[in-house]
Known about the structure:
By secondary structure, this protein is of the alpha+beta class. The protein has helices spanning 22-31, 48-59, 86-89, 97-106, 125-133, 165-175, 191-202, 234-247, 262-271, 308-315, 335-341, 371-383, 393-397, 403-408, and strands spanning 2-7, 12-17, 38-42, 63-68, 71-75, 108-112, 137-141, 144-148, 157-159, 181-185, 206-208, 214-218, 227-229, 249-254, 274-277, 281-286, 294-296, 321-325, 345-349, 352-356, 365-367, 387-391, 413-418. A four-stranded mixed sheet has the order 21-22-1-23. The site of uridine-diphosphate-N-acetylglucosamine has 20 residues, from helix 1, helix 5 and helix 6.
Amino acid sequence: MKSIIIRGGRTLHGDIAVSGMKNAALPIIFASILTKDRCVLDNLPDVTDVNLSLNILESMGATVERLGKTTVAIDTKDLAGGCSPVDLVSRLRASTYLLGAELGRFGSAKVGFSGGCDFGVRPIDQHKKGFEAMGATVTIEDGCHLVRSARGLHSASVYLDIASVGATVNVMLAACTVPGRTTIDNAAREPHIVDVANFLNMCGARISGAGTSFIKIFGVDSLHGCSYTIIPDMIEAGTYMVAAAATGGMVNVKNVIPKHMETVTAKLIEMGCGVDESDDCITVSRSTRLTGANIKTYFYPGFPTDMHPQFAALLATAEGTSTITEGVFENRFRYVEELRKMNAVINVYGRTASIVGTKQLTGSPVIAVDLRAGAALIVAGLSARGVTEIAKVETIERGYDSIVDKLRGLGADIELAEK
Ligand code: UD1
């Protein structure tokens, strides 16, 4: 049993480097199925979800070669479709990308139900809608999703009812080698969508419009291998920015793309933080008590839902009453119970958390109920008086590369304990 132990109250100072983006790395790893050539991926974060995804490919017959701490070579020449291990697939949400990748490579897909964080129902009806528009049928058999295209896939105009990240990626994966022009209207615009499209284009795909809500995919005969560097993780960066704001001091968050951080930066400035940007670094400082704020999470370029719990932890000690309204997931409030154990005053009304700022949180034993909830508890623990012990650290390790070591490098009193 692992736990993170934090003795709170230290201000943070210095430099912290952000790793590659988990939510870009995962679809790109699965996208490598679309080519029989070797792909070399760099700036991969060393997190459990990435390692699990690589294990899934290996168990399907791919060769995965570790070339360095953040670099792997993937060769899917001998990979067989329809045989992904259900136990691994059920441990992460990103395994749904196997549907689009297998469909694109083999013309059919068979994949067990995916897992990941529990934010209420996480349907895949929009993925299904995209596949069906392209001539596939989607059924459930033996506890797996089965996608088949008896007469082969054809190009299509896909309109997504929701700008879903997962559905947008899956349609792009399925369509790369389908003759003609496939379009996705109301596509997700997140930076990781652009990264996946850039990777696929490096492999010879012809995708344009990624980053806007209208994506065009012109089918090519086949894809080839490439070397690709994953973009920095905007949520990891945002988490460290919030940690700096919560504890005071001055922190340089390095290896970021400031453009991706605009909503987080704007909110921190609104609350009273100093935020300075240079090419690939953001400096966050705080000298007085922060003021509360109101936040609504939404699809990119809206405020990221994956920064919701960390901001709740920050607002818990800001002056006045704040609100966070969750606009993406139906239930993202499981962290509230844990923050309450630390004396946060939070009430949830429907999709809105009302947070009454208290001067100081107090340390407590708490549980990382999901990935970003775990990050929020770290933020809270760093600013709290006393000791916070966070259980279920595995949840945090799914998406944060070396978070304990990185924060210790800023002067935090934080350690990983194993019992
Ligand atoms: C991805 C991210 C997750 C992030 C989320 C939103 C990965 C592995 N996970 O999740 O960290 O919080 O984007 O930025 O990249 N929906 C439907 N039908 C569908 C698909 C989605 O109703 O077919 C709904 C979902 O329930 C949710 C919303 O659309 O309410 C957004 O989901 P989506 O963008 O698909 O998120 P994920 O890809 O699951």
